[in-house]
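Human: We require from you a standard protein entry with sequence in single-letter code and fold as tokens, and nothing else.

Assistant:
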Amino acid sequence: MSVCIRPVTQNDRERILEGLRSMSAETTYRRFFTPKFYPSEAELRYLTEVDGNSHMALGAVDCHRDGTPGIGIARYVRLVKSPSIAEAAIVVIDAYQGKGIGSMLMAAISKYAGAQGIDFFRGYVLAENTGVLRYLRALGASGEHTRDGVVQIDVPVYTRSSDLPAGTETERARWAWRQVEAAEHTECG
């Protein structure tokens, strides 16, 4: 499998819809806190029309499959009142989970956000999603606040693999950052 990570454009509308349709109820619930998410036309425009500064989205595509299908996406939206913080989210479709795609998307969006002056990503994670919370904590996440079963957590934005915290828990992150550093967002699809 060859994964390419590149900016999302308006031309990705169908890829995003196809990816959303392919996700299981569990994956959709973990990302959107609802078992199914069908975006309206306005939401699709929001998902695909990004300015590259206050709102950015990077998509991962499988470059070796016909049609280079979308397999994951990372997005951030800068907070107006705290411009060095951006709300961020990542989702990977079920068939590609557990292969490091989410970690590569995190590395790519972090590298991009750091260059835009963003110091922290704010994420919202279900309290029951212990694997993701453990991973984010290993990356130095702080400021946790739980409400209605959802944890708000702030994660430092790292721009190089050498900036990541040491430890066995962050090996996957270091691997992903090195992959992104080597590829520098290869264009495809």
The beta strands are 3-7, 55-62, 70-78, 85-92, 120-126, 142-147, 150-156. Helices lie at 13-22, 25-32, 41-48, 101-115, 130-138, 171-183. The longest helix spans residues 101-115. The longest strand covers residues 70-78.
